[in-house]
Specification:
Length: about 140
């Protein structure tokens, strides 16, 4: 069930990438796309591209917020740059809406330059227990 929730969270975050014009290069739980490689020892859920700009996507749950390494992970991923042009790589953080306060507090403790490079995507999702398909999805920005 937890794996299904993680998969659905990644799918919802990919929807947000598409709405922002990004093309998915690699993703977790994909059928045709490869899984993204670990960056600095941290798991990444999505890597996407819009023209010459790149973005990284991670999804978080309540367990992740209790991890003491989360702040380091967010800071590390939000300060990534492309190899060739040294452009900043945007970090999308997908998180359930009921954890809004916790993630906003964690991000508020980061440096201003790091915060500028983070885009938080809140979402609500429920699963239909009989069919294991998406029943409702709502995005809050």
């Amino acid at each position: 069930m937890l794996d299904l929730m993680k998969r659905q969270s990644v799918d919802l975050l990919i929807d947000q990438f598409w709405k922002n014009g990004y093309l998915t290069i690699s993703r977790k739980f994909g059928t045709y796309l490869p899984e993204p490689q670990r960056m600095g020892g941290f798991d990444v859920d999505i890597i996407a591209r819009y023209k010459k700009d790149y973005a990284i996507g991670i999804t978080l749950n309540e367990e992740d917020l209790d991890n003491p390494q989360l702040k380091n992970k967010i800071q590390f991923l939000a300060t990534r740059q492309t190899k060739s042009s040294n452009k900043q790589v945007l970090l999308f953080v997908g998180i359930p809406n009921d954890l809004r306060k916790k993630i906003e507090f964690i991000i508020s403790t980061l440096d201003e330059n790091v915060r500028k490079n983070i885009k938080i995507q809140f979402f609500n999702h429920e699963l239909n227990s009989n069919t294991k398909t998406k029943k409702k999805k709502t995005f809050l920005n």
